[in-house]
Amino acid sequence: MKGNSSGLRKGRYSEPGRIYLVTFVTFQRKPIFNDFILGRKLVDVIRKESEFTDTLAFVVMPDHVHWLLQLKSKSLSDTLKTVKSLSSREIKRLRAVSGIIWQKGFHDHAVRREEDLVDIARYIVMNPVRAGLVTSIREYALWDAVWL
């Protein structure tokens, strides 16, 4: 079955000021970010998007990213397009790799006002512990949250 993730976005609207939980995945779920240097480069790219978003929490897993953000001026699609494009360029430059880095599309959830952002952030940053990568989040360097 061929994916049609761009078709899923048709008619979708991203709202400035709205908070979104976004997940995006590496192509064929390759664990690119087992390489710490590449993970840090992706963190740098996410932080550079702060002109267009307020990052509330994120975690970079070996083959995917969870990002809790509040949009400022760019659309959600444009924000993710920029992050994927810039990080792909940097990954290819740093490791002389070719080919596709990111799977097309992304999953997003517009956070409702009644949802507890701190609980969502804790869930995000605990991913490496739940995945068995570390026993404590203190042992994992590819995350951040404004509350923790």
UniProtKB/TrEMBL annotation:
Residue ranges constituting the Transposase IS200-like domain according to the UniProt record: 15-127
InterPro entries given in the database record: RAYT_transposase, Transposase_17, Transposase_17_sf
Gene Ontology BP term (one): DNA transposition
GO MF annotations, alphabetized: sequence-specific DNA binding; transposase activity
Pfam families assigned: Y1_Tnp
Xref: PANTHER family: REP-ASSOCIATED TYROSINE TRANSPOSASE (PTHR36966:SF1)
The protein, known as: Transposase
Species per Swiss-Prot/TrEMBL record: Amphritea opalescens
Lineage, uppermost ranks: Bacteria, Pseudomonadati, Pseudomonadota, Gammaproteobacteria, Oceanospirillales
